[in-house]
Amino acid sequence: MQTDWRNEERNYNSDIKFLTRLNITLTSDHDYRSNLDNALKMIGTYCQNDRVHIIKIYPDMTFTLLHEWHKPSLPSIKNKIKKQKCFFEQELEDQLNTHNYIYIRHASDLNCKELKCFLEDCNIEESLLFPLFSGYLFSFLSFSHCTCQNSWNKDDIELFTAFSAIIAANLEKNFIFKKMNYKLKQANQLTAQLTTNRL
Length: 199
Description:
It contains 5 helices and 6 strands. The chain is of the alpha+beta class. A 6-stranded antiparallel beta sheet has the order 3-2-1-6-5-4. Helix 2 runs antiparallel to helix 5.
């Protein structure tokens, strides 16, 4: 029993250290796209996922892949997927409303033919999606396996929830930073204009 507790404690400490490194990576410089790509790579490698994506949902209920990481042995799917209509399956919506995430255990078990075909075309068998809550962006953080040999457990889901919270906070921070820069530019232009008018 004690050995199990020590392993659990070691895993917990390892996860805390990883979350700290992840947060540092996301805030290390002002190139937030590069930071996000590095963060997805860290997450995918640490958790042994096949693919990790940030999926943006548009107001017209279409989606695109904003960011992607995949195992080197797999092809990229980001450039293949243009703006595409969102899929609907009642069971998945119920999961999202109840658990605050979507877990597709076997793509072959889905009722929605379009979603099933989409996942098969992308060679995705199992997928977990977590909403990224941000004031300006409706999106999901998606983890995928191309086989069902590595099913996720409750601890994985808790860790992925922490990942999504950290990424959402950094997306929001980036949006606020951009907005402040824009306002600062406007103020500088107005000051320059007023100075010129006085001369």
